[in-house]
Amino acid sequence: MKETDKSLDPQLWHACAGGMVQMPPVNSKVFYFPQGHAEHAQSNVDFGAARIPIPPLILCCVAAVKFLADPETDEVFARLRLVPLRNSELDYEDSDANGEAEGSEKPASFAKTLTQSDANNGGGFSVPRYCAETIFPRLDYSAEPPVQTVIAKDVHGEVWKFRHIYRGTPRRHLLTTGWSSFVNQKKLVAGDSIVFLRAENGDLCVGIRRAKRG
Questions:
Q1: CA 165, CA 46: separation in Å to the nearest integer?
Q2: CB 192 within 8 Å of CB 208
């Protein structure tokens, strides 16, 4: 990943990350654990070149947070820039620590774990009623059958088109045309989750949560 990589919309990022994930706001204080960083980093982290002993934890200020997604898997992650605090700065107030969480309303979003039928690249996606009626554009139920084209942007800004139809006995909402292509290109399998979000500007966004692989 390069520093010039485009940052995701924070609301879409959080919808894809899930409700259990919380990110510290800019200007808040966090502890940095060097040993934990070294153990979980994808590349080797060598603190041997340091001229002074590395403490087990370092109090830092969050200078920047960048929300990103892996270009291959669509899995979201974040890059934080931390600035170590000097002793004279240890008593500074976290005035903005909760500003992001309290100052903004969460947009409407919905996540569904894919069934074997959903992940079948020759089939369609069974849309839960709440998602169809709350997240998707309004469907004209006076038509026979009620059908529309749903346009959604993924975490990379790529546009996907799905055919949304209300049919069957009993009737249910389905994504048909366009869904198989999405499943194939994203390499989705049963157990992965699909996330739909209605952004503040009205755009429909789609994201992915990968199931943990054994």
A1: 55
A2: yes
